[in-house]
Prior knowledge:
Elements: H1 13-28, H2 32-41, H3 44-47, H4 50-56, E1 73-77, E2 105-109, H5 110-116, E3 122-124, E4 138-139, H6 147-150, E5 153-155, E6 161-163, H7 169-180, H8 186-215, H9 219-236, H10 243-252, H11 256-261
Antiparallel strand pairs: 1-2, 3-4, 5-6
Amino acid sequence: MMYINRSGKTPPQVWLDRADVITNSLLAATSEGARNLIIDTNQNLWGELKDFLFDISFQKCWYSESRDTYSHPHVDHFRPKKAALGIDRTDKGGYWWLAFQWTNYRVCGGAGNVRKKDKFAVKSGKAIDHTSNLEDEIIYLLDPTEEEDTLKLTFNSNGEAMAYKRTGWDSERATYTIDTLNLNFKRLKEARKMLWITCSTLIAETQQLMDQNDINPSTYRRGQIKEKLTRLKEIANKQSEFSGTVKACLRSTGIEWAISYAA
């Protein structure tokens, strides 16, 4: 999962104006059926923001960091529109008033969005309507727009997403998120595993060249080291696919220079 910094990012004003009109219609609706009809009738609106949202994440899924492996991207409603299934899988009430709020949107690969659907468990403080304070909710699902949340997931050499901590609330949230978003989808794991192998090979080759150059310095060897480090920087860059996996690999080595590249 990558941190999505939306600071300074805003959809076109014409889109915001249209969304406000529809949201006002939702607030004025007198029944659930009327609200659902408004949502269904205007569902193309959030699709219009797909390119805008994709640009924020360097064309990657906000949850998996995948470009192609995670299938066709969807605009996901982080807090579901019509129903929100709790831990017990019963409906606790959807967030209909957020259906056309762009800050509730996340770009998600199809394999994850289909699995997620209406799942959104809240431990306490569940919002019930537009007068509720969302900040009071203690939620299970990790949010890529919250930098702290992205630190609760990591990866191993098999390409598996896993909780950074083994126990506690952070672990519960990470485990729930991995399952809800299908983050260990087979093709995702395979792609991350291959990248881990690439990364670990580069690290080993770089360290070997550094050790050799320490004993017998040469301009040629320094050039080789520079090439390896440049490649490692490229795949660890936040614009690269699965950069979180690369950083986990770098940290796992215990090598000081490699760890610094994961910062």
